[in-house]
TrEMBL record:
InterPro entries: DUF4174 (IPR025232). This is DUF4174 domain-containing protein. It comes from Salegentibacter maritimus. The keyword Coiled coil applies. Residues 33-60 form a coiled coil.
């Protein structure tokens, strides 16, 4: 029984570590995770698509994570890659070559797809969410 409990604690702690980098955003930021098994054309196209809309991203409290198997970075700065396999392993569970995830303010997955995501579709999805609707109403007052 002790081995089982120890194993459970170890697994729980490991999962917490995977989420550690992203948990700091909960209730503050929405996240877009661009995940690819290698730095490929879809990965670059998705990055460029979102990079064209800095005001829309900021308005919707979106933080971009670019995640490759051995490293990740946030935002659009070119030289801030961090070495880690944890985010890739945690969020590419279906083992696809390319994946885009939208994570809401509450930390829940709101979108998970393996094709390009247009900024327009992304903004429409977010703008239809109840929390975003409340933000829009608050800003109009």
């Amino acid at each position: 029984m002790r081995k089982f409990i120890s194993c459970y604690i170890l697994i729980f702690f490991s999962v917490s570590l995977h989420a550690q980098d992203l948990s700091k955003h909960q209730w503050k930021d929405r996240l877009i995770l661009i995940i690819a098994s290698k730095n490929n054309q879809k990965f670059q196209q998705q990055y460029k698509e979102l990079q064209k809309e800095p005001e829309g991203l900021k308005e919707r409290k979106l933080v971009i994570y670019q995640i490759l198997p051995e490293k990740y970075k946030t935002g659009f700065k070119e030289k801030n890659w961090k070495k880690s396999t944890e985010l890739f392993e945690a969020y590419n569970g279906k083992k696809s070559d390319f994946r885009v995830l939208l994570i809401g303010l509450d930390g829940g997955k709101k979108l998970d797809q393996t094709k390009m995501l247009s900024a327009k579709k992304l903004f429409n999805i977010i703008d239809s969410m109840p929390m975003r609707q409340a933000e829009i109403q608050k800003n109009e007052q």
